[in-house]
User: What shape does this take?
Amino acid sequence: MRPLLSEVMRSLLAMALLAFALSCRHQSAATHHFPFAYVQEDCGPTDGTAMEFYFTAKEGQGGKYKEPFLQIEVNENLPKSGPQDYSVKSGTIAVLASRCLGPGSCEAATSGFLRLSKFSRGVGASGDYKLRFRDGSFEQGHFDAIWYRNYFLCG
Assistant: This one.
């Protein structure tokens, strides 16, 4: 009876290890590098003022950002100074985030956060972010964003 029990234990251990390996593979790490960071005011989804953060692979020119990039848009409780934490949650417009890997190819983050350690309107911001996407992948990083002055009217 002992050999049967040890065989069952080995089978259970093998299944557990396989399940763990598959779950690790599904939770893929970030694959993109975004060394440039920008912050600017813009209009939000309800025509109020929003604060937008862009994390880009290429240097932006005049408030224009080429793919690939990440965008986090804060629509409520806009920062006045740091530290300040924001949560990205599906189904709410308070904080929206997306990853755009090519022209017209953007996907919304399902969860995540933006943590501002410093924020100075008209100067810039620094902090950390982590965004999770539907396929289980995530993007994360530390940033020092420069301010891009953008004059606009919302409404």
Remarks:
- The first helix runs from residue 2 to 26.
- The chain has one domain: 36-147.
